[in-house]
Amino acid sequence: MLRSTPAQAGGGRPRASLVRRARESIAKGSKSFAIASLLFDRDTRERAHLLYAWCRRCDDIADGQDHGGDLKLDEASAKDRVEAIRILTHRALDGQPTADIAFDALGLVAAETNLTREMCDDVIEGFMLDAEGWRPRTEGDLMRYCYHVAGAVGVMMARVMGVPADETETMDRACDLGLAFQLNNIARDIWEDDAAGRCYIPEEWLVEMDIPPGQHMKPQYREQLVTLARRMTDMAAKHDAAARIGAMRLRFRQRWAILAAANIYGEIGREVAARRGAAWDSRVYTTLPVKLGLVGAALKESISGTYPPLKMPKWTRGELMMMARMAGPIPDAAMEPLPDEDIRRLEE
């Protein structure tokens, strides 16, 4: 008789091994977040690294890169790769081994911080949008995508930092920070996305600027593109300002780390806006001395406090979650008969 594998957080791997591999992942994949994460207390830092390892691995699999892992999905279609992400994620959340370090890392941090399947599925839906060749038609479409790939991760990070699930205001602000990060990233990566056959600029924005589909990187449209990129970075700045309200509710070291990350990613958006038409001639990044200066500025703000924005962002977590649910897959219909159907059968 076959016995089922007992559920174990992390798929039964030693915690120290998962943490070490997760730390290696963030050191390789994101120097900005790696620096900010050093400001966390040890428990929060390790859990943030575990979550990052899953996010990074999902991104690699979705793009068909699969760096340094056991899975071999190179020949699979984009949709099949995302479905593999979903299956492995659900398996990890159930405490089952996945044969992949990053997914086992998710299983461990989920067990320690009560991350839910719904939270993970929200992130995975962002990968599915890319796999389907999706393009945003409206600003709302753009923001729904940003919610999936970054806002939802911000919510998960809040749970990693110990924010209770019912502290909705703080969760909303964590989502704002993720939205700010993604908007700045999109503005920075317009050229790279175009080279990969992707465009996250809403079609309605392009029409407004009289830019034909697929032509936004042509030199004759550079000034219009500068205007649209500035629109994105301005939106990012509003979400960033709102996020800082939530950061002030965190413990000191968490607050410092989050504000440092906000400063570093915000600098990307400010640099894109400052370079104007030259923003995509070379990749925008922040140097180590600049990063250290932004960390210092975050320390000062952590102590002195932050000013609330004069106006909150247009797009809210609740609204974006509703849009995500409405656009998501329709759940399977229940196969059990309704109570009154049972009564009618008895009467017959």
UniProtKB/TrEMBL annotation:
Keyword Transferase: yes
Keywords (A to Z) from UniProt: Transferase
PROSITE patterns, sorted: SQUALEN_PHYTOEN_SYN_1 (PS01044), SQUALEN_PHYTOEN_SYN_2 (PS01045)
Highest taxon, organism lineage: Bacteria
Descriptive protein name: Phytoene/squalene synthase family protein
Signal peptide (UniProt feature, chain positions): none
PANTHER family: BIFUNCTIONAL LYCOPENE CYCLASE/PHYTOENE SYNTHASE
CDD domains: Trans_IPPS_HH (cd00683)
A Pfam family annotated for this UniProt entry: SQS_PSY
